[in-house]
Design brief:
CATH architecture: Roll
Number of strands: 5
Distance between the termini: 54 Å
Order of helices and strands: HHEHHEEEEH
Low-confidence stretches: none
Oligomer: single chain
Number of domains: 1
Largest sheet: 5 strands, mixed
Strand content: 15-25%
Mean pLDDT: 93
């Protein structure tokens, strides 16, 4: 039996008035993958566990809550989401675009045309039916700018936009600077990572097809 103190905690899910995008999400499958394949075991009550659960709660809200009034992890007036030094996005952008479109919008191997929060999540849910797990690796600095490294992984076991899966593991690592206030509400998320290896795998892109490589 899993140690219940180790299972990720996603807060702010039990208010009956929450407006869910579809229905209240179930994280049993991805929690199982996280518990079985994580590389870190942060102690309950540690800074690492607190930040990891905060990010997982934010992911739940940004993926599934339709109304910004239901978001409890962010400072609604200050919140910004920035990927690799790009354009800052706010809560309204987040709700419309969704995490995948925000994280991949500048990736040349990702076709974002016609993609919104719903459609992009459907694409990656089909590609990663066993879940796309996330863990915090190491906290490098504390409040107000909490800097940490992270790992995101899955098995490519479902089709991606017509490309048949290879069942190979896909893994990304990166760094995040989360600016938080005294109540641990997020004011800014700055994400730094390279999405190209993952997208090259999913699109079966070969460097021999790139004119720059010739």
């Amino acid at each position: 039996m899993d140690d219940l103190t180790q299972i990720p905690v996603r807060d702010h899910m039990d208010d009956p008035n929450i407006i869910w995008r579809h229905s209240k999400p179930d994280y049993e499958l991805v929690n199982k993958k996280y518990m079985a394949e994580r590389t870190r075991n942060h102690a309950p009550g540690s800074v690492e566990r607190i930040v990891e659960n905060l990010v997982k709660t934010w992911e739940m809200e940004s993926s599934h809550k339709m109304s910004s009034e239901d978001w409890k992890t962010v400072n609604l007036e200050k919140y910004e989401f920035i990927v690799n030094g790009g354009k800052p996005l706010n809560v309204a952008d987040n709700i419309e675009m969704g995490n995948y479109n925000m994280l991949l919008s500048e990736c040349p191997l990702y076709n974002k045309e016609g993609q919104n929060n719903d459609t992009s999540h459907a694409v990656f849910k089909e590609a990663f039916p066993e879940g796309f797990a996330w863990e915090l690796l190491e906290v490098l600095s504390g409040q107000p700018k909490v800097t940490f490294t992270w790992r995101h992984w899955a098995n490519w076991s479902g089709p991606y936009r017509g490309n048949e899966p290879t069942n190979e593991p896909i893994e990304m690592t990166g760094c995040c600077i989360a600016t938080v206030d005294d109540a641990l509400k997020i004011e800014k998320l700055e994400i730094f990572y390279d999405p190209n290896p993952m997208m090259a795998t999913l699109t079966k892109f070969k460097t021999s097809n790139c004119p720059v490589a010739k």
